[in-house]
Amino acid sequence: MSGRIEGKVIAFGETGDLITDISAPRLQYAPRDERIRIRCDEHETVGMFLEANSEPEATYMAVLDDRGVLRLRIVGMSARELLGIRLGETVVVEW
C-alpha cells in the first residue's frame, strides 16, 4: 500500500523542532521504517521514530512525539535555524 499525507509547520519547539499539524491518527497506516519519506522544503528524511529514540547528533529525523504530533528535528541543534523553515511550510509524508 502506498500513501501520501500533506500538512504544514504550525509551530517551533523550544529547541527549534518543526512542529507539524500531522497527527498520529493521520499516520495510522504509514510505515515507521525506511519505506516512509518526510519532506519539508528541500529537506528529506527517511523513517519515523518515537520520542525516546536516541540518534547521533546532527541527525535530521521525523519524530512522533508523546502528544501524537509529527515533529522534524535535528538532534542537538535547531532545525528552525539550520534549515531556515518558516511557519506554514508544507510537509509531505509519502510511502
Percent of residues in helical segments? Answer: under 10%
Main pleated sheet: 8 strands, mixed
Spatial strand sequence of the major β-sheet: 4-3-8-1-2-7-6-5
Q: State the end-to-end CA separation.
A: 8 Å
Q: Return the structural class.
A: mainly beta
The tally of domains stands at 1
The unreliable regions are none
- Please report the total strand number as a whole number: 8
Order of helices and strands: EEEEEEEHE
**Form type:** globular
The portion of residues forming beta strands comes to 35-45%
The CATH class: Mainly Beta
Architecture per CATH nomenclature, i.e. the level-2 architecture:
Beta Barrel
The CATH topology corresponds to Elongation Factor Tu (Ef-tu), domain 3
User: CATH H level: which superfamily?
Assistant: Bacterial fluorinating enzyme like
The residue-averaged pLDDT reads 94
Number of helices: 1
Computed over alpha carbons, the radius of gyration is 12 Å
What does this structure look like?
The structure is a single chain. The protein is mostly beta strands and 95 residues long. It has one domain: Elongation Factor Tu (Ef-tu), domain 3 (Beta Barrel), CATH 2.40.30.90. The chain has one helix and eight strands; from the N terminus they run βββββββαβ. It has an eight-stranded mixed beta sheet with strand order 4-3-8-1-2-7-6-5. A hairpin with a 4-residue loop joins β6 and β7. It is globular. The relative contact order is 0.35. The model has no long low-confidence stretch (mean pLDDT 94).
Characterize this entry briefly.
The chain has 1 helix and 8 strands. The protein starts with a strand and ends with a strand.
